[in-house]
Amino acid sequence: ALFDHKHQNLQTIFKQAIHQHNSNASLKFIVETAQEFVDHNDPTRVVRQLQCLHFNRGIYAFLAPHFEAYAYKSALSFANTYRVPLVGSSPLFPHHEKTHFTLIAYHIQDTAMERHTFHYLLTNLVLSDSWSKEVPAAFNAVNITSFALPSDRNELRKLIQMKTSSANAVIEEEKTPTLEESLALDSTRVLLQAFNLIIQSQINITKALETESVVSTVNFTRKVIDPTCPTLKPFKFGEIIASHLKITSMNGITGNIEFHSTGLRKNYTIEVFEITNNGNFEKEEPFLMLKKDNSLSGNDRFEGFAADLMASIADTLELQYKIQLVNDSKYGVFDGKSSWSGMIGQLIRHEVHMAIAPLTITNERASVVDFSHPFMTSDITMMFKKPSSGPQDMFPFVRPLSKEVWAAIVLAVFVVTVIFYVVSKLSHDRNVTETNQSEGISLCSSLSYSVGVLVYQVSGIYPHSVSSRIVSSVWWLFVFIVVTSYLSNLTANSVLTKMKFTLYHITGKYETISDGFLYYDQMPVPISSFDDLAKQNVIKYGLLRNSSTQTFFKESQNPAVSRMWATIEARDDLLVDTYSEGVKKVRESDGQYVFIMESPANDYLNDRQPCNTYKVGKHLNIVEYGIALPRGSPLRDKVNLAILMLKDKGVITMLKDRWWRDRSQCKYLDV
Q1: Which of 271, 296, 327 is the last residue of a domain?
Q2: Which cysteines are joined by disulfide bonds (predicted)?
């Protein structure tokens, strides 16, 4: 195998593949290798090294995983002349490919040709490798089509990270494997497979080998020929190896591997990538928001659940992307004729490659675009404004009884005072005071007695006459009934005051009403479902225009939902264009407007200052959010796989907790 000092990682791949083969006890042969470092800048010396290896060390085939163009031509000429198989990848450019590509990238970035009207076609497999961060930045404003070989990078990464005695070179574990490393592994395995075919067909090959005096078919060892001899003969066994190489077929990490009769690869898979200046997003909290730092640029300007989700998907799939906001700030609705608005419309017109937002998966949308596996579920809920507490009550102790009852009690005190005084005067018996001295009762004494009974205090007056005791007994019975009612109502009013902030409301305020004997705050009428909301006609309700929620209300067969849609449709002012507009109407309507929205946004906005809204309702039209892609997009299966992997690892759950629960601006107390 031939390497240069700049690509020692390819030597590691080669060593690991050979070690893996030789460690397999079920195989009938082992491989001995010879490894040389060559100077690609000196093609003549490269040919001399090939001669020394072939004729002095008995090499059966050469592996050249990386060769510069001029050195490759010299090596190929030697291989054809002496019929020694050469396995490797031919360079497409006469110069170092990565430098060549980087120069083109910076040229695009520094010229006026970066306008979106230009489209570049990169003919090399540059997308097969991970680019440095500065190179993709050149393509943020251009359209590019390029190609890549599929590669199982995970298998290659595991092979690189293996530490065996045959692999002294170590590659950084976090480095992404390149296309050259993938091809080096496949080239090595193709050679091993070809030799295995020769072993399996040894009987047929023996006759062909008998004429080669320097070959032993028993153990595949070659006699050494002195390279200084005057005559160098072509290697006859090379044609047999080459013929078996051409019939070798296998499924490598770069896909299907087969060869033409000319020795070139055929029937392989090429992935076509189109890179444009946008990946479509909708700016909506907490899915996507602009950072406050104006010095940031590119994708760094954004934050939110969708931004983090896309970053996780890109890391999983090793993709490069750019965030672009949707033109009309809409998700996408059909106009009833021929076109779609918002994200869906841009996907249909192939202006973007994917759309990430709280984009509901519906039958109508799924008929024109492809959706990934859902990354979040939701249902339709209502946003209410919390009721205000109202002015502070300076006399809460008088609230259990109405004004009329209090007035009647005061009047009763004076009436009983007069009656008690008159009865005592007309009675022949004297009332006895606390000092047991008989004396006539006065009007003041009678008032003191009436008030004392009312407040359960001893006045020092004890009626002795039958008529006075009858009046006193009636008064005591009246006072007992009033005090008992007062205490029970006081307790009930205290409990209701604590509960009033947790009950659903219909008016948004508390009114003082009198119900004969009792006096209390009017408590909110409970609204716990859309049926309750549909039955009343006091408060208004609305939803987001041109949204999946509007489509659901419009097409629903639920009687309550149909009645609500008829009300909304009759008044255009009940529909809003953005979530922020709907939330603003709820907070400024003093409880006279309810916004119908999907639960993830409702949960997030209720935890934002001033913390004066809350969610009501659940399980109405459970929906799912997915990533939308154009029909037939080659990215769909990869995005699906990435979402499933992120779900299994708990990444999506962690992202939701980060942007909902952990960023709450409100503090709640248990009631």
Answers
A1: 271
A2: 611-666
Best-predicted range by mean pLDDT (130-134, 298-302, 423-427): 298-302
Nearest Cα to Cα of residue 102 among 148, 147, 138: 138
Domain identity same for 267 and 286 = no
pTM of the model: 0.49
The CATH number assigned to the domain holding 465 equals 1.10.287
Q: Are residues 35 and 182 in the same domain?
A: yes
Query: Is residue 358 marked as binding?
Result: yes
HSE (side-chain half, CA atoms, 13 Å) at 648: 6
Give the residue from 216, 237, 271 where a domain finishes. Answer: 271
Average pLDDT rounded to a whole number, residues 179-194: 85
Contact 33, 192 (CB under 8 A): no
Does 360 carry a binding-site annotation? Answer: yes
User: Cα–Cα distance between 499 and 520 in angstroms, integer?
Assistant: 14
365 known member of a binding site? yes
Q: Is the peptide bond before 286 cis (omega within 30 degrees of 0)?
A: yes
- Higher-confidence residue of 289 and 84: namely 289
Report which of 385, 365, 373, 348 is spatially closest to residue 546, judged by C-alpha positions.
Answer: 365
User: Binding site annotation covers 81?
Assistant: no
286 with 420, same domain: the answer is no
pLDDT at 513: 41
Three-class SS state of 94? coil
User: Does the annotation place 130 within a ligand binding site?
Assistant: no
Of 65, 69, 63, nearest to 7 by C-alpha is 65
Residue 518 CB contacts under 8 Å (≥ 6 apart), including other chains: 400, 401, 402, 485, 489
Question: Domain check: are 16 and 54 in the same one?
Answer: yes
